[in-house]
Structure formats: structure tokens, C-alpha cells
Amino acid sequence: MPEFQKSDGQNYAPKGISNIVCDKGEFIVGVCRMDHGHIYGMCNGLLEAGAQIGYVYDKDPKKIEAFLKSFPDAKVVDNQEALLDNPKINLIATSAIPNERFEIGLKTLDKGKDFFSDKPPFTTMEQLDLAKAKVKETKLKWFVYYSERLHVEAAVYAGNLIEEGRIGEVVSIKGWGPHRLDKKNRPNWFFNKEQYGGIIVDIGSHQLEQALYYAKAKDAKLISSRVGNLKNSEYPLLEDYGDATYITDNNIPCYISVDWFTPDGLSTWGDGRLIISGTKGYIEIRKYLDVAASKETDHVIVVDEESENHYCVHNKVGFPFFGQMIRDCLDRTELAISQEHTFKAIELAIIAENEAVVM
After folding, report:
1. How far apart are CA 233 and CA 51, in angstroms?
2. Cα–Cα distance between 293 and 261 in angstroms, integer?
3. In angstroms, rounded to a whole number, what is the distance separating the alpha carbons of residues 334 and 352?
4. Bridge pairing between strands 52-57 and 28-34
5. Which of 42, 128, 224, 287 is most buried when burial is the number of CB atoms within 10 A of its CB?
6. Burial (Cβ within 10 Å: 0-12, 13-18, ≥19) of residue 167
7. Phi, psi of 117 (to 5 degrees)
8. 120: cis peptide before it, omega within 30°?
9. Is the model's pTM score more than 0.85?
């Protein structure tokens, strides 16, 4: 991965092992608006699973030019309507400004297509409710790019270990999601809470999705949450810190913490970690590096009843979500991720944001 992508979270675009699940031209993706660089990771994952990145629209020609360097086969369309009306397209993908993503999703489903949104897919409960109603009405799919689990091999591997019973029954989950702020390279919307939704909605939704997944929970109760602008007063609508505590519906305590304080000395955009404690051991996921020991990604540390283990699983596990997602769209199944789970993660984030103590 180019060093600029690794150091800059907004351009972080993992590449993995190809695992083609469909015939050439069977699954075509249209890209609609690219206000965040996550669209590159979204498209990489789909391409590696056999999708064709067929069409792209954005009103900014510079973004189009940059996108075509990575996906040269994509055809440029002049407007959003032309993209949504194209009968060849199976799925619309977007990384538009966060509070504008849901409108693209509603229009996509109305046109009979499945939808893939960057996170956060919504910034308000009203948007979420409208999306739920549209999914129920159309029976179509609304996927979300929760990349910190779906596009991290260490996170995939940890899930496999839990499924195998390596650490027994899960007892507690703690997630840390620090990010680099990089003020000078952020767009104006990034500093406007109405547009990005607040820190727990924006980057905390990653952590909540993971907590639900590893706990094998369907819901969780918010115990407490905090947000604040602690050290960036020149941007009054920015939240640079947030945390929240939950208990899942199967009685597993979870804590998440997110911030925008990654120091420049770190070689990646954030030292994302997750600790999952169980009745027979624990797992620590060090997603993007092992600080001062290895700049390689995807470290999984496992302590069980027999031994201490440190696995580096980069380029060894792959990203099964994308292939499963394509097959779900083609076969009308629900194997990659459930719609209930997808929406519940952002619902819990919005609740925590709305009820947070402001520091």
C-alpha cells in the first residue's frame, strides 16, 4: 500500500486476495459521488471479488480524474440521474458527504438497485427510519462499509477464532479507534457536525458494529456516552473525542473510545485496537501496526489456556464480505451481513451521540 494511503485515513484503501465469485460483467457497480476516499477501498473490495466498476459520477472533475487512474474501465456519466437510471447497474456505491448519503440510497432503491454506503450511512434517526421503511417497501439491500472489521484481515481472523471457541464465551469487548486529524487536508464539511454527524456517529459506528458482531448480539443498551471538542477550539463544530459504554442484549459489557489525536510520529493514521475477553482467554487485535515492533498490518494476539500467541495474518485471510455481498445481491440471500445488524450499529451510534454528555 502506498505510504500516503497508510498514513492518511481518508485515503486508506486496502487491497487483498482476489476471490472471484461471479462471471465477468455479471455484477456492475455505479459510483455516485466521492466526497470521502473510502470509495477506493469499497471499490477495491468489490473488484477483487469479481465486480466490474462500470460507471462513475461526481460533479468535481478532479475527483473523476483521480478515480479513473485507479479504475480506468469506469465510464463517466454526466449526472446522477443517468447513473441511477442505467439498467445495467446492479449496485450503487457512494462516499458522499455523510448527511447526504441517505438521499442517494432512497433514490437508488426506488430505481430497483441495491445500495452500498460509506459509513456513517446516516446522521440522524429520521434518516435511519426513512431507510428502514424504504428497505421494507422495496426488499432491496442497504449495505454499509464498516471497514474496520469488514476490510481488516486481523478483524476477520479474530472473528474466526471466536467462532471456533478459542477463547470460550465472550465476556467483554473494548474498542479503541484513534484517527489522525490532518486539518489542512480535510474538506469544510468535515468540521460541521450537521454534515458529519458527530464523532460517535462518524467513527464510533465502526466500533459499535464490531461490538455487536463479536458479542453475537442483536441489540445493546446505552449506559453512558461523552463527546467533546477538547483541543481544537478553532473548529467549534468539530468533536475530537467521544466514548460510550453499553451492555448488549446477551449481557456483554462493551466500551468504545474514539478520537482525532493520532500523533504525527505514528506511521499509520491510527493505532486501532480491540480487546475481546473470554472465559478461556482473550484476543487483542492490532489492526494497522504493532507499535515500534512491526509496521506490517493485521496483528492478532491470542492468550488461551495453553499458550501465548502472536499471529500476523496480512494477506493470509482475505476479505470474504465483498464476495458474499455480491452473491447476496445476485441470489437475494443474506450471508454477508444482516440488514438488521447493519442498521443497528448506526442506530446505537446515533443514540449515543444524541444522549452524550458534552465535555
Report:
1. 44
2. 21
3. 28
4. parallel
5. 42
6. buried
7. -105, 145
8. yes
9. yes
Type of residue numbered 297:
T
**Which SS3 state, helix, strand or coil, does residue 229 take?**
coil
Q: Which amino acid is at 128?
A: L
Q: What class has domain 149-317+349-358? A: alpha beta
List pLDDT tens digits, range 102-157.
999 999 999 999 999 999 999 999 999 999 999 999 999 999 999 999 999 999 99
Percent helix / strand / coil, the chain, rounded to 5 = 35, 25, 40
Torsion angle in degrees (nearest 10) through CA of 304, 310, 311, 312: 160
How far apart (Å, rounded) are the C-alpha atoms in residues 245 and 285? 19
Distance (Å) of CA 83 to CA 68, 325, 356: 16, 21, 39
Q: Which of 111, 102, 89, 87 minimizes the C-alpha distance to 31? A: 89
- For 141, list phi and psi in degrees, rounded to 5: -105, 140
Q: What angle in degrees, to the nearest 10, is found between the helix axes of 125-138 and 101-110?
A: 10
Residue type, 217: A
Read off the amino acid at residue 72.
P
Cell of 124: 440522524
Contact partners, residue 84, CB within 8 Å, separation at least 6: 30, 32, 92, 107, 108, 111, 113
Cβ atoms of 64 and 83 within 8 Å: the answer is: no
Within the chain, which residues score under 70 in pLDDT?
1-12
Q: What is the pLDDT of residues 66-114, one digit of tens each?
A: 999 999 999 999 999 999 999 999 999 999 999 999 999 999 999 999 9
Q: So where are the chain's domains?
A: 3-145+320-337, 149-317+349-358
* 90's grid cell: 446492479
Neighbour count for residue 295 (Cβ, 10 Å): 13
Max distance between CA atoms of the chain, in angstroms, equals: 61
Assigned architecture for domain 3-145+320-337:
3-Layer(aba) Sandwich (3.40)
Residue 14 confidence (pLDDT):
79
Sequence-ordered list of residues with C-beta below 8 angstroms from that of 299, at least 6 positions apart, any chain: 154, 285, 286, 287, 289, 290, 310, 311, 312, 313
